[in-house]
Specification:
With 363 residues, the protein is of the alpha/beta class. It contains 14 helices and 12 strands. The protein starts with 6 loop residues before the first strand and ends in an 18-residue tail after the last helix. Belongs to the D-isomer specific 2-hydroxyacid dehydrogenase family.
């Protein structure tokens, strides 16, 4: 049996508890310093068996750091890599196809942060409907002549359209239950049993945007979802409807959204994500009174950070113990991954993999 010791490289943990969970494990854990010389970072990465991938927001803050996202070039340079994981549910920082071709397992951390993001999405709905942020801005700007101009609406009995019914979307539906909303869902992976359990009606995208009072985007950014919401979708929405996203910026067309807001085609938007993060302070969307925005903080709560860190560490322990990763995104890689794992560590992972078991992790 090989005496090779697993080597895990990470950029940062969402909470220090991850290091504590990993400490008893027989794993070399090495931090990647994005500001360090590239030669040093590549020597670290090229020796790694596992890589907890840096976030796009972190790499955007430093020139040249985007090379440390798990794209095709990184995968080709790091021959020892067996697995890469993203920090949260989103995995657009990883080239899944390149990993699968190279026999590298890809995992995310969907689930642990779902409560935080779903609550944030609900917060956007309440804020926009009740005009909370708009009222705060007006009140601070000076004397308010007529408070009736700030009349809002209620969530009770309205129609909610959820695009992507994974962990976040499903929890959002549960949180909205007291408002007795009619819930529509667009999700190619949605089955009738799950729809019935959540009390939602599965529809196509055109029906969802046409009928909803609140259009909520909670799907991951993939080749299927990039540009999913564009001019046609915004034009089809009700003029009284609100667009809300806690997904990834490129899922929707920002220019089309701005045009829809300026023309009054839709009533407003709640945005936690942008095409460029952080957005420029003079981003035209941030100048709109009808927009409520946060800097990709929907999933940043003390509880979520800890839960994600624990789940992250436990998944890495499972990976290096030869177990099936609980949030595997590319199950087709499993046979080749097992061969590569055996070549490195001298034993094969002790689990089989059913591709159907990984469907929910993609959302």
């Amino acid at each position: 049996m090989s005496t090779t010791r697993p080597r895990l490289v990470y950029e940062r943990w969402t909470d220090p508890i991850a290091g504590e969970v990993l400490e008893p494990a027989d794993i070399d854990v090495i931090r990647l310093d994005l500001s360090a010389p590239a030669e040093l970072n590549w020597s670290v990465l090229e020796s790694a068996h596992g890589y907890q991938v840096a976030t796009r927001t972190d790499t955007a803050a430093l020139p040249g750091a985007s090379q440390y996202l798990a794209g095709a070039e990184l995968i080709s340079r790091c021959d020892n890599l067996l697995a890469v994981c993203s920090a949260g549910a989103g995995y657009d920082v990883i080239d899944v196809e390149a990993c699968t071709r190279a026999g590298v397992a890809v995992c995310n951390n969907s689930g642990p942060g779902a409560e935080a993001v779903a609550e944030h999405a609900l917060g956007f709905m309440l804020d926009l409907a009740k005009k909370i942020t708009v009222s705060d801005r007006r009140l601070r700007a000076g004397p308010l002549e007529n408070r009736l101009t700030l009349r809002g609406t209620q969530l009770l009995g309205k129609t909610l359209g959820v695009i992507g019914l994974g962990a976040i979307g499903s929890r959002l539906v549960e949180l909205c239950a007291p408002f007795r909303m009619n819930v529509l869902a667009y999700d190619p992976y949605l089955d009738e049993a799950k729809a019935a359990a959540l009390g939602v009606t599965g529809v196509d995208l055109a029906e969802l945007v046409r009928s909803s009072d609140f259009v909520q985007v909670t799907c991951p950014l993939t080749a299927e979802t990039a540009g999913l919401i564009g001019r046609a979708e915004f034009a089809a929405m009700k003029p009284t409807a609100y667009f809300i996203t806690t997904a990834r910026g490129p899922v929707h067309d920002e220019r089309a959204l701005l045009e829809a807001l300026r023309s009054g085609a839709i009533a407003g938007a709640g945005l936690d994500v942008f095409h460029t993060e952080p957005p420029r302070h003079d981003d035209p969307l941030l100048q709109m009174d009808t927009v409520v925005a946060t800097p990709h903080t929907a999933g940043i709560t003390a509880e979520a950070a800890r839960d994600i860190a624990v789940a992250t560490a436990e998944q890495w322990k499972a990976i290096f113990a030869g177990q099936l990763p609980p949030r595997l995104l590319n199950p087709d890689v499993w046979p080749r991954y097992c061969e590569r794992f055996n070549d490195v560590f001298g034993f094969r992972p002790n689990a089989s993999c059913d591709p159907a078991d990984s469907d929910s992790n993609r959302r």
